[in-house]
């Protein structure tokens, strides 16, 4: 794809995402969670241009929050924890300024990850109906984690050789084994570590969902099996 076309697509996606964050932040929360989890697979099988997509969407959310702050927060969010918001802004400012270090490539990557993570938190926290936003985000996390757990079990059935020679994955990158030779699943993620981290985070959400104990236990069992492989 040409740089001009990619740039135009990025502008369109950013604008659409910004509108989505303003009008339906709970839906965008689910889109962000699911999109971030499947992005490595989209990059691998479709196009590397999906790589910066998450940065564009996070930027859209933060711009939406900035516009909302300039024109007034929703009435139900005008009473928020100022100490919490102030502490987060101070932390992000320190990362951006980096007074004790230099602005290297490592700083840029680390600062980007921290600013995006806490920026998304502020988008959800200061947006309308943050409880609904959290429910949608948690639901998306459980859904994409379950999908990854099932995919991880399928990858165990496919095996290392077919994943490398038929699907094009690289041994040592996506496909990895333990010291004992056991193949570790990676789902839609870049490596088994991110896969296990995603499932572990979803497992915590499932165990904390006491309103639907039976469903939560069933989800937890599948996630534990997925982590084990």
Please give a structural write-up.
The longest helix has 29 residues, at 130-158. The chain contains nine helices and two strands, in the order αααααααββαα. The chain is 73% helix and 2% strand. Strands 1-2 form a two-stranded antiparallel ribbon. The chain is globular, with a radius of gyration of 20 Å. By secondary structure, it is mostly helical. It has helices at residues 3-23, 25-45, 53-71, 82-97, 105-126, 130-158, 160-165, 192-208, 213-228; strands at residues 176-177, 183-184.
Count of β-strands: 2
- What is the multimeric organization of the chains shown? single chain
Indicate the percent of residues in helices. Answer: over 70%
User: Residue ranges: pLDDT <50 for 5 or more in a row?
Assistant: none
Cα distance, first to last residue? 37 Å
Radius of gyration: 20 Å
Largest sheet: 2 strands, antiparallel
Q: Per DSSP, what share of the residues sits in E-state strands of 2 or more residues?
A: under 5%
Name the helix and strand elements from N-terminus to C-terminus, one letter apiece: HHHHHHHEEHH
Category from helices, strands and their pairing:
mainly alpha
Q: Give the strand line-up of the largest sheet.
A: 1-2
**What is the number of helical segments per DSSP (H or I, 4+ residues)?**
9
Tell me, briefly, the overall form: globular
Task: Write a short abstract of this structure.
The protein has nine helices and two strands, in the order H-H-H-H-H-H-H-E-E-H-H. With 229 residues, it is an all-alpha fold.
Topology:
Layout: H1 3-23, H2 25-45, H3 53-71, H4 82-97, H5 105-126, H6 130-158, H7 160-165, E1 176-177, E2 183-184, H8 192-208, H9 213-228
Antiparallel strand pairs: 1-2
